[in-house]
Design brief:
The chain is mainly α. It has 4 helices and no strands. It starts with a helix and ends in a 24-residue tail after the last helix.
């Protein structure tokens, strides 16, 4: 598909609109920047989803944020060390 950028853009816009693909992922699929993808969507009459659409969604996002001063919850489990044990 690399030789057909228009097809990549069409597919990215379709998946953005129908599958809830993020703007960043759509841009990556299309092979364009985030800003370019936003413009492409606007040209096609597709409103970019930028942030919460309702007060309830905004409140849910705010509640999911850690309180100031609290450490953020770990996103991924710690990876085991790849260091070899030392021989003594």
């Amino acid at each position: 598909m690399a030789a057909h950028p228009d097809v990549r853009i069409q597919l990215a816009a379709y998946r953005y609109q129908t599958e809830g693909l993020s703007l960043a992922k759509a841009a990556e699929l299309a092979g364009v920047s985030w800003a370019q993808m936003k413009e492409i969507l606007l040209e096609k009459g597709i409103a970019p989803r930028l942030g919460p659409e309702t007060v309830e969604e905004a409140e849910a996002e705010a509640q999911a944020l850690p309180e100031a001063g609290e450490p953020a919850p770990a996103q991924m489990p710690a990876q085991p060390s790849r260091e070899r044990p030392r021989r003594e």
